Amino acid sequence: MLTRRPLVTLALASALLTACGGNNSGSSNNDTNNTVSATFVDNAVSGLQYLCSSTSEKQLTNSQGVLQCEKNDTVTFYVGSIELGKTVMTESTVFITPATLVGEDSNEDTDSVFNMAKFLIGLDSDQDTSNGISIAPESLIFVGEELNFDQSAEDFADSAATIMTQLTQNVEDGPFPLANDEDARDHIIIGLYLSHAGLYEGMVNYPTGNRKIALLVSREGGAYGTNRTLAGKYASSGISSRNRFDTVGRSNDIQVDGSTETPRLIKTSIVNGVLSGRSIAEDNDELAPVIAAMAPPPEEPEEFEGEEGPEEPVLDDGDDAILIEARRVVTFDSVFDQSVVDKFDDLLPLAIDFGDKGVFVIDRTSKRMSGFHYASYPGGTPHAADEDNELEGWDTNIGEIISARDNKIHLIAMSVNGYLVDMTMNMSGEQPVMNASWRHLYEGAKGTTSTYETEYEYDSRLK
Predict the structure, then answer these.
(1) What HEC string does the chain produce?
(2) What pLDDT is recorded for position 367?
(3) Domain 198-330 in CATH 3.30.70
(4) Which pLDDT score, from 0 to 100, does residue 33 have?
(5) What is the pLDDT of residue 448?
């Protein structure tokens, strides 16, 4: 039975999904005070000292890891007398990670990044990274030594041991050691993926015209979405389920015009919230396998084993090239409450009522749609108004968590045939209250709803 509840708050449908959820709102630029804000993630690091070049006093990142400086300030990060590194705060600065401080193309395998992650995790005052990293005031002291992060993990462990004791011996339950290698690697990967994750909207630039594209980049480096072909069809786009972006934000496997007879692969990178790329030449001998139809998923999918495909593919040039550029319009909270997610997942499959159009289903994903927390296929998406533009796999949809805290979950979901859904559910009362806004990317239809059905029965191969 569909459940109808009063609407509480809904963004205007015409402005759906133009800002992120929660406190993690990316660059908070203000023409009046000329300030920008960003979040330091490994995941969210609160209590971290930072100094903006336009000021003379150090400040602390807040409980969500957010810092604020004037636009184009150089910001330097510290733990007491230990300097971590610095970067420039621009309008496009949304997340700052240890890799940001180390430099371009650095990742979890870069010694400085890996060691900084071990250091920050080791400083966590409650030694529980599931709720973020919180640096206690007792750790913000002068230690009389410098700490070099640019050395092997073994050498760093030796040089950091005494400093870690000094910094954490006065913290409750301290002193703490450096984090172990496995925990640090897993943790920094989460932060690096998060720095590129979000909803991207933009254009595919074909040699003879431009068409819209929207991609959802997940917290685990997956990318999936939809683009309109030159012929006006609603095609799948993104990365196959066996591949993902690397943690630097690069992929040779982004596909446009999926489910058509002429899908194309794009060498893509994400830099400062802009996803851009150029088509890979079709005669490239080492071209990564093309997925003729990215949806439906295969019956026996391969396990994800990391990024595949050529490192330096031959690209199209001149008038033959297909270009894409999309800007991030939604970012995700750096930390979410897993208990809230679990509570929501117990309600699934969740059917969101689109009125006469049908229902949009939020469901748990499987390894067939790896990299995403939610997905449904088939029967989980309403038809578009113009069904003639729908291709194979049109009713595949995927979703990701924007935020989950205080018994509220905020999700974003997208279907291959062009629906974009922004949904919140408040589970603090006896009966969950849902509010959702939706729009069709190509047809202009839009609406709001508070009607839903839990444990919805439908035919899905993802079950």
Answers:
(1) CCEECCCCCCCCHHHCCCCCCCCCCCCCCCCCCCEEEEEEECCEEECCEEEECCCCCCEECCCCCEEEEECCCEEEEEECCEEEEEEECCCCCCEECHHHHHCCCCCCCCHHHHHHHHHHHHCECCCCHHHCEEECHHHCCCCCCCCCCCCCHHHHHHHHHHHHHHHHCCCCCCCCCCCCHHHHHHHHHHHHHHCCCEEEEEEEEECCEEEEEEEEECCCCCEEEEEECCCCCEEEEECCCCCCCCCCCEEEEEEEEECCCCCEEEEEEEECCEEEEEEECCCCCCCCCCCCCCCCCCCCCCCCCCCCCCCCCCECCHHHCCEEEEEEEECCCCCCCHHHHHHHHCCCCEEEECHHHCEEEECECCHHHCCCCEEECCCCCCCCCCHHHECCCCCCEEEEEEEEECCEEEEEEEECCCEEEEEEEECCCCCCEEEEEEEECCCCCEEEECEEECCCCCCCCCC
(2) 56
(3) no
(4) 72
(5) 98
Burial 143-165 (b: 16+ CB within 10 A, else e): beeebebebeeeebbeebeebbe
- Burial-class residue 370 by CB neighbours within 10 Å (0-12, 13-18, 19+): buried
**Spans in the chain with pLDDT lower than 50:** 1, 3-32, 285-310, 462-463
pLDDT attached to residue 314: 81
Distance CA 257, CA 294 (A): 10
Domain definitions of the chain by residue range: 3-17+334-453, 42-194, 198-330
Cα separation, 438 vs 417, in Å, equals 13
Q: Tell me phi and psi for residue 169, to 5 degrees.
A: -70, -25
Query: Which amino acid, residue 223?
Result: A
End-to-end distance of the chain based on CA atoms, in angstroms? 21
pLDDT recorded at residue 311: 59
User: Residue 216 corresponds to which tokens in the numbers above?
Assistant: 């959802």
Indicate yes or no: pTM above 0.85: yes
Name the CA dihedral angle for 400, 404, 410, 413, rounded to a multiple of 10 degrees. Answer: 10
Q: Rounded distance, CA 299 to CA 297, Å?
A: 7
CA 322, CA 237: separation in Å to the nearest integer? 14
